[in-house]
Amino acid sequence: MRKPYPLLVLLLSVLALVSTTAYRMANNGYQVGDTATDFRLKNVNGQMVSLRDQKNAKGFIVTFTCNTCPYSKLYEDRLVQLHQKYAPKGYPVIAINPNDVTLSPGDSFADMQKRAKDKKFPFVYLQDETQEVARRYGATRTPHVYVLTKTGQDLKVSYIGAIDDNSGDPEKVQKRYVEAALDNLLTGKAVQQTSTKAIGCTIKWRNNS
Amino acid sequence: MRYRIAMFFRMSFFLCALVLGFLLPEKAVAQTGKVPLVKLSHLQKYLNSTSDTTYVINFWATWCKPCIEELPHFEAVQQQYQGKPVQVVLVSMDFAKDLERKVVPFVQRNKLKSTVFLLDEPDQNAWIDLVDPSWSGAIPATLFVNNARKQRLFLEKPLTLAQLQEHLTSKFSQNP
Fold first, then answer.
1. Do A200 and B125 touch (CB under 8 A)?
2. Alpha-carbon dihedral of residues B44, B50, B51, B53, nearest 10 degrees?
3. Does domain B33-171 have CATH number 3.10.20.30?
4. Cα→Cα distances A195→A79, A145, B118, Å
């Protein structure tokens, strides 16, 4: 009875791994409720940043963004405000630039450094040079937000989508999706609107067909 | 009397222009280089049209580099399929405030002949799924739709001329 047991466990875990991988590939990234994995990317100050390093955080506002997309630029000030409001409450903004530098030279590391300095980003601005993180998360456009919440050792995806409902005019915003999600989380409630969509610039993928 | 006749001609000219304006909104648009500012219901006319026409609805913006790069392919296809039941519709995602400053000059400079309009619906989350549930919102994006034949294809990526033609001929059996 005892002997086949480890083999069975191994078989089952391989099966589980294969099926979750297949699921991920079919769904092109994370869905709300999924467990997000950590990463290690270079910040504009030259230091490597991982989510697990930030012991005091309750979660993260992971935002795929870039230097070159007009929609991203329109949201820079709003990202700064989000960070200033929610980092003290445990949810810092983690900005990640996933664009391929060859296809989009304005997104080079030096340009990222310059942009972060010019706009006085109070948050980390990381380069996803291999585009692996953006692929894993299933990001398609900039800006594209993933709100993650720490649950024990895991990071749970709590919200995916847009920052608010008016890219062009911050004055005319009526629904602040990310803020609403964070306010839900901070008051221990379930996020009411877990995903939204918005127009954005397609991520400049290497070897794009 | 002469005044009356002149008035009559003026009125009938005006009426004809009005009627023509209603009948041929797209043609009028293409010729004058003007770009109408429209609401969702205008886009839905194409999305829900039951005529046996294959609409190639491309979502683009003047600020979107890959969009601008593929626009000539859509123009070429529209030329190729002239007189055939294929209509290219270029939906600008530019902001309404940039219409006169950016979009109209762009359309005129590039002499775009396809139907162009600017969709003024800032709450994008409210309508993106109506175009296609698989669309995340990244542009360029293109919807091929022929409701009469119950055919549709949505692609959230830039297209080459060859790909465009391939989709039209193989999936929609539309030959130029």
1. no
2. 60
3. no
4. 18, 10, 26
Q: Which helix (H) or strand (E) holds A80?
A: helix A70-86
The reply to whether A174 touches chain B by the CB within 8 Å rule is yes
B125:A209 CB<8 A: no
Q: How many CB pairs under 8 A join A and B?
A: 72
Residue B83 pLDDT greater than 60, yes or no: yes
Q: Characterise A157 by phi-psi region: left (phi > 0), alpha (psi -120 to 50), beta (else).
A: beta
Smallest Cα distance from B13 to chain A, Å: 41
pLDDT averaged per 10 residues, chain A (length 209): 56 54 59 97 98 95 97 97 98 98 97 98 98 97 97 95 96 97 97 97 83
- Cβ distance A50 to A39 under 8 Å? yes
> Which ipTM did the prediction report?
0.81
DSSP state of B102: I
Going through chain A in order, the beta strands assigned E by DSSP cover: 35-36, 40-43, 48-50, 59-64, 93-97, 124-127, 141-142, 144-151, 154-161, 200-202
State whether residue A105 sits within 8 Å of chain B by CB: no
